[in-house]
Amino acid sequence: MSEFRWDPLKGTWVITENQRLRQPREFIIERQRTSITVCPFCPGQEGKTPREVYALRPGDTQPNEPGWQVRVVPNKFPVLRIEGELNQRSSGLYHSLQGVGAHEVIIETTDHQRSLAQLEVLEISAVLQAYRARLLDLRQDRRFRYLQIFKNHGVEAGAPLPHSHSQLMAVPITPPVIRSELNACLAHYRTTGNCLICDLLAKEIADGQRVVFNDGRFLVLAPYASCFPFELRLFPLQHNHDFALQSDQELIDCARALQEMLRRLFRLLEDPPYNFILHTAPPVPVETTKPGYWQTLASDYHWHIELVPRLSQIAGFEWGSGFFINPLPPEDAARFLRATDPELAL
Amino acid sequence: MSEFRWDPLKGTWVITENQRLRQPREFIIERQRTSITVCPFCPGQEGKTPREVYALRPGDTQPNEPGWQVRVVPNKFPVLRIEGELNQRSSGLYHSLQGVGAHEVIIETTDHQRSLAQLEVLEISAVLQAYRARLLDLRQDRRFRYLQIFKNHGVEAGAPLPHSHSQLMAVPITPPVIRSELNACLAHYRTTGNCLICDLLAKEIADGQRVVFNDGRFLVLAPYASCFPFELRLFPLQHNHDFALQSDQELIDCARALQEMLRRLFRLLEDPPYNFILHTAPPVPVETTKPGYWQTLASDYHWHIELVPRLSQIAGFEWGSGFFINPLPPEDAARFLRATDPELAL
Description:
The structure is a homodimer. Chain A is 26% helix and 24% strand. Chain A has helices at residues 24-29, 121-138, 176-192, 196-207, 248-269, 316-321, 330-338; strands at residues 3-7, 12-16, 54-56, 70-74, 89-91, 94-98, 102-107, 146-153, 165-171, 211-214, 218-221, 232-236, 274-279, 283-287, 294-296, 304-309, 324-326.
């Protein structure tokens, strides 16, 4: 079983996989691209994945059969496994925790050829509904401190399978990236009474030079301190700490903004590889009046989606310092993207 | 001029380059490999680099002429520039600092074909002497809070030029990675009176399963919470916080351990791309009895070299969470490397 290990010098956690012995040669081969013959995410291949945990089936079709529009299955090669207890262990300066969690795959479309940018708004909103459904289901498990939804698009971004999909990892430790954001939001709330992100959005709208898209409901901007060229963040303008509490209509509005963001990138940068990550408040085990799922903490947080195109490499300086070097000011990135027509010639 | 920008949500700093307007097409092209016709680091091409700031010249030869063994020049395309004041600026929630610093290239050998792993111990120690000389020189500039020495080897690790070289960046902010380590060492010293890294090394030597190499002077190990397969750290066993205070003999001993580490990786993983980073105590502006250079702070720190092979990609989960997933336990990596003969068939 894999485990979480804590580094006493860096104060960070790492997931160490040790489910089978791997040979050095496998790591040499990882530099090559992998190829598969039959796509396990295509309709008709449902038997090649573990049994589905969610599916949007517009017609009256059976689970694990064709007829789905969006399908969620456990990852066949999960980094974290759902069974087991956390079993924290310490040995002097070292600590570890069993690699308990969940690792699911959200198959976004039946069409092997179309990427998320190429889907229609209602199709994208069906993907967001699947995210919401899985968040609401998995937050009932008290072992999970955070539910991380992310998408790797393109081989350079870590997606060896081309069929469009995103992933969900439930983890037993709040991720440090989320913890830092929660702390910053809490500190700002304590000194001002305001949501930090609401204040940032007001400042960005007034300034305007980093805004890519704003339809009054959702806003896409190139962050002031972008780490990478064309890095983008998508925010709801209406304050909400928890993605899972968004209504169907809000998910459609979000899908429209996400489609705008992805299509502008697709056209400007010729379908670049990218990662996006949903940042939302972590669940806490306090049952609400609405039975069946847990309330979340941190109502001073503000959910959003972060997108990082993978156009350049992280090298020794970034790894050793924690400073990133961004060769393109976000004001230029936003200007280029504003001038790009989001209509795809499909 | 480039600038440092602070992210109020993440609490991180980014270097934003804005020295010239770049076009989106340049970022598409970055996915291709670049090629050059004449190597500016080869002997006879000294005029293609800025004028040297250090050179080891065994014979009686002139600066910026052939005859050098190791040569240090300012980077022709520096991320940070040596001229100017810091000029901290704030605008509400955003802060920035001018991109003042230094960016130098250490050309490790005259031979275009040989990598650092292929050099002899005395040749590697000449490279380490160049590191020491540049640290001692640049720490006289009170604007610099840290001097980061690092090496990118191979295209996948961010080295577009194949001629073996490392780099030095002087930065006006202590890097967050170093700050975390200093804080961990200080906290451990306060509660135990000991150096955290000395205590970790004693534990690792007693355990033994993660040790790759130990000649009684320097030790190479696979860290307990390795982020990547075959990640390694090299430590002096004699406590020393400051690389620049190492003697000539200590640099030779260090070169021997570094050569062992690099050659075992070279043989086991067929010359993998890698980054290594020197971690050493930051300089502080307190003049010592030894004139001409500054004492460093943090004598409870312990300098070391961290090496990260670039065999896998960082994807959405790592970027979004701050957790890394390592598919190879460090105990296995150390065992494979111990069993590898460091003698190269050159």
